[in-house]
Hints:
By secondary structure, the chain is α/β, with parallel strands linked by helices. The chain is built from five helices and eleven strands, in the order αββαβαβαββαβββββ. Strand 5 and strand 6 form a beta hairpin. Helix 3 crosses helix 4. The longest helix is centred in the N-terminal third of the chain and has 21 residues. The radius of gyration is 18 Å and the shape is globular.
Amino acid sequence: MTKLLIFVSLILSVNSLFIERYFIRFPEYEITSEKIPKSFDGYKIAVLSDLHYGFLVPEFWIKHTLNSINDKNPDLIVGIGDYVKKRNFDQELINVWQLLKILKAKDGEFFVNGNHDHWANDKLSLKLLEESGKSIRNRKVFINKGNERILFAGLGDFWEDHIPIDEILKGSNSIDFRIALAHNPDSSNTPHSEKIDLFIAGHTHGGQVRIPFVSKSPVLPVKDKNFDIGIRYSRLNELVLISAGVGWSILPIRFNCPAEIPIIVLRSK
């Protein structure tokens, strides 16, 4: 019995420390709406969240991860923050933004920052975001196909850089299918009257450790504990998709919660 317990503990340790952390899955989520134009039926959006470049998340593995995203041939890639891990450390920010240049999608790449990016260096993280030419922070951008279009809006980080949603969407049309990029899913619960059809968020890491069978995590860094992983609804009954992300926080383990790059597939109803 003792040998069996040691063997099981070893297997679980290897799984938590290496397999679930380094073998990234690409789950697909179909989002169906009458507001999605027919020309966008099958449109693919790859979601990069919580990369946390730094200790135990080496550069060669990040390059492999980013190239793997490109290999999925998405129409659009969105980055929703926490690209680095350390606090008060400029070099990680500089390095990771060089690596993020690897990402290439048909319609481009849109990025917003997360709390760890601000904690590394608030001013530098915003500077690098804007200089990348891929920032969607505090703005709205349309993707057009002929006479049809969908709208993307970029929010600031809920903890460090909150930007009211209605300010960003001012002047837009509610008939457009609207997608908001937000690092923290709690942003979806902030007061707003402009309708959002889909929030794309991360931040939670899915809890990193999820209890088998009940599929719950004991630790979630959000106010709304409903926001853990996958498709959820905000208090305003708006759709929120939450990625478990790539990197780690607090402890370098994952159990029953593998690293992931979600692929969102839009479907016209």
